[in-house]
Amino acid sequence: MTADPRDELTNHLGPMRAFAMSLTRNSALADDMVQDALVKAWTKIDTFEAGTNMRAWLFTILRNTYYSHHRKARREVADVDGILSEALAQKPDHDGRLQMRDFNAAFDELNDEQREALVLVGAAGFSYEEAAETCGVAVGTIKSRVNRARARLAELMSIDDESAIEMTDAVTAGIVTAQRSVA
Amino acid sequence: MSQHSPRSSLTDEIDANLKRAFDKISEEKVPDRFSDLLSQLRSAEQAKSREGINDDG
After folding, report:
1. Are A150 and B14 in contact (CB < 8 Å)?
2. Is A40 touching B (CB cutoff 8 A)?
3. Pick the CATH number of A83-174 from 1.10.10.10, 1.10.10.920, 2.60.120.470, 3.50.50.60
4. A40: burial class by Cβ within 10 Å (0-12, 13-18, 19+)?
5. A149 CB burial (10 A radius; 0-12, 13-18, 19+)
6. Inter-chain residue contact B10 with A168, CB threshold 8 Å
């Protein structure tokens, strides 16, 4: 009896949601996207080569789903929510409130390509090669996108050493765009 | 670690925190809709393959 690679899909759901969330920064859209990607993965399982990186394969499907359907929806959604930020936003941010907003704004200013490259390499633990394959571009392109994303964030945040520590909280909360309604 | 410029420590911070946030989201309990979906896909396929067997036979 051969193992069905589809049995492994369930192991990747968490990271798929995290990646989808980083692309859409909206939990409802992210979950819709994961759902679409799961159906695709299920039906196209024969295009998955056994022994290769299933997560990279799934992320490729996810980002294709995003670029073909959900990016438009993402633009139409005015509010980004932060259910995923609940766990992250628990740190006191008395001084960091402005900075959190700054990080959100900065993260939003990255283009989709830079953002996904940075998330894949900087957060999801992908090698440059895996990220390049996932995004269907050359390794050099990924490297340059990651570098530009980092440089752009650093520039936008441009803060001195003193505030760099406070910024930590802002970044943590910012990835999930914890934009609470403006009180 | 070569230099200790504010910029490089900032990008380290950015990466470290992105990673922490990513991991945290990854470890959240996955909504039931996804396991439900996977079971639906599986049973749909099983139903279909039973039809297939009938067709062949």
Report:
1. yes
2. no
3. 1.10.10.10
4. middle
5. buried
6. no
Specify the domain boundaries for CATH 1.10.1740.10 within chain A.
5-76
Residues of B in contact with A17 (CB under 8 A): 25-26, 28, 30
Binding-face residues of B in 9-38 toward A, CB within 8 A: 9-11, 13-28, 30-31, 33-35, 37-38
* pLDDT tens-place string over residues A64-94: 999 987 677 666 654 455 433 443 443 444 4
Entry field: residues in chain A? 183
Question: For A137, how many CA atoms within 13 A lie in the half-sphere containing its CB?
Answer: 15
Q: What is the ipTM of this complex?
A: 0.78
Residue A181 DSSP one-character state: P
According to CATH, what is the number of the domain A5-76? 1.10.1740.10
Q: Closest CB to A161: pick one of B6, B18, B19.
A: B6
Q: Which two tokens stand for residue A137?
A: 């571009």
- Check the CA dihedral B7-B9-B13-B14 and report its sign: positive
pLDDT in tens, B1-57: 444 455 567 778 788 878 888 898 899 999 999 999 999 999 988 888 887 766 554
B5: left (phi over 0), alpha (psi -120 to 50) or beta: beta
